[in-house]
Amino acid sequence: MNPISRRKLITTGIAATAGIAGLAAADRLAQRYGLIPPDHSGIYGPGETLTYAAQRLLTRHSLAREFPRGMISKAPFANPVAPHDDQFKRLQANNFTDWRLQIDGLVAHPASLSLADLKHLSTRSQITEVACEEGWSYIAEWIGTPLIDVLNAVGVSPHARYVAYYATEKGLWDSIDMADALHPQTLLTWGMNDNDLPVPFGGPLRIRVPRQLGYKSVKYLTRLTVTDSLKHFGKGLGSSSPEYGYSWYAGI
Ligand SMILES: Nc1nc2c(c(=O)[nH]1)N[C@H]1C(S)=C(S)[C@@H](COP(=O)(O)O)O[C@H]1N2
Ligand SMILES: [Mo]
Predict the structure, then answer these.
(1) Which of 42, 207, 222, 241 could cross-link 246 (Cys pair, CB 3.0–4.6 Å)?
(2) The whole model's pTM is what?
(3) Helical residues (DSSP H) of 33-132, grouped into ranges
């Protein structure tokens, strides 16, 4: 079953069994356990809350599927992006030696990390699938530093609830909750299939969130901010995607 129909099935399934009264109960439950996604209001509000809450309660500790090496896609598809700006090109010309990832917000030690710093911290690899909401997908080996190791290194406040992250593209940002941020498969990725991460695939640095759709795996990562609320970030919807009709939570 493809990821999108599975997700739809969960939502429709629960909604069908729960009925309208059940929806209200699920909503109260979600409120109580802090399972309200940042983009909950508006037309899709109740549905989004139900999907996010249901998945978080059921699958908080689940792992995205990992594949054997033989299943790595021979011709992975890089989703085209807008042309890179001059600053990016300058950094690229210098092999991204001067690339830095800023980490700030609710952390004890704000940091500015080079790729070498990340590699020095820890390395993990996993073979997982990138699934675009448009229906295509590919499998690759992703090599990087688990986000949890970086968060532990900078010291995350107990009040942290989300990690927001930014790309080089103006206005493109996203966020994940701490369940995904601290998840062992969430990777700050700098390598792919035994090589450096190629630029079309997000090099030099990309976050991989394999339990969610491809659009949460933002390429060209420049900054992470740890926060207890996303209310004052952008339009307050948790990421830029809801502005274009995509939900903040994209669990698969
Ligand atoms: N910075 C940045 N990250 C991005 C995107 C983008 O346009 N810019 N597209 C997203 C979308 S919609 C998908 S499906 C995946 C595609 O990953 P790929 O280019 O490795 O195929 O990247 C995501 N990350
Ligand atoms: Mo996508």
Answers:
(1) 241
(2) 0.87
(3) 45-59, 86-93, 115-121
